[in-house]
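Most newcomers find our protein records easier to grasp once they have seen one. Sequence and backbone structure share a record, each on its own labelled line. To make this concrete, we reproduce a full record directly below:
***
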Amino acid sequence: MHIDFNSSAGPSLGIEVELEVVDRATGALVSVASEVLAEIGAAHPGGEHPKAKNELFECTIEIITGVCTTVAEARADLEATLAEVRAAIEPRGLALLCSGTHPFSSWADQQVSPNPRYVRLVEEMQWMAKRLQIFGVHVHVGVRSPEKAVAIANALAGYIPHFLALSASSPFWEGRDTGLASSRSKVFEGLPTAGLPAPIDSWSDFEQFMETLVSSAAISSVREVWWDIRPHPDFGTVELRMCDGIPTLSEICAIAALAQSLVARLDALDDRGYTLPRHREWILRQNKWRAGRHGLDTDLIVDEQGHLEPARSAIIDLVEELVPTARRLECAGELESVGKILEIGPSYQRQRRAAPSTITAPSDLKPVVDLLVHELETDGVLHPAGQR
């Protein structure tokens, strides 16, 4: 099975953000996405907004950037689309937030979007798809060849826990504290083609694996392989998909800067003839579990002898290593904000601080929804409201 890879000239950047639509008064998810998208798409060719899309459920609106060069450009792109969506929902008494899971709404109450692809997914996966009331942020970084995409994706797998711990924002599931920093990551792993990437050695190996999956009717297209990191042939990128929903644009941009800088750094090492690292599957799985369970307050396994390093230290060291690359990519300021996430605490910690000490009913977590709405509206976590 031949798969064309639309190579990128350099480390271009694209960001996808899955937003939850909630009732401002009750905090519950609201199935209104198609109605809102029809309204904001009316002025565009074909009646579809080019950068606001349906997702699996009608309570979700995904906003995407075009192909960007810098993180600042991507942020401006997201801000423009977010403003359009917000203008359409606010008169309806609705609000937006971004987190890995909604604190208390039930998946059983959600409506599937009227898209044949999603209808087929639910029909095939049944309960595993119906419970996917989860939300993420995906970052695409352009690479120059399919072989580079495979080598870089393999090396990036070792950093899945870094990104997951920083972005973890799903401690609650249907009104209960799960005890996890990221319950989203575990829910998503229920799908047979989601979670840790399969071991791929080359682009021809990737093509063979996709041929096996398509020929066996395991998937209908490459789009249905939802690994935490995957080569994206159509976009000519490596796509990082491990992140939970991230509550503020500043935090999204910090994670995007980390991703773009890391991919560019690995690409440069590959150019110099270095063999990019591969990681043992059992270490990857254990480290991802640790990040999903404990977030930043965990120790990561760094070698096959079982030596450990605190996740916070590993992230600090990574950021320091990437500063020269970030300067070249004009995202040093955004990369610096990764350190601010370490200082103030990621979303799973902030949500727990906002929650009541005793939860007797799911709606008791309405203050957590209010916090998440406020954070997206003001961008006031890493920066004072209205400032950057």
About this structure: The chain has one domain: 13-196+228-378. The chain has 14 helices and 13 strands.
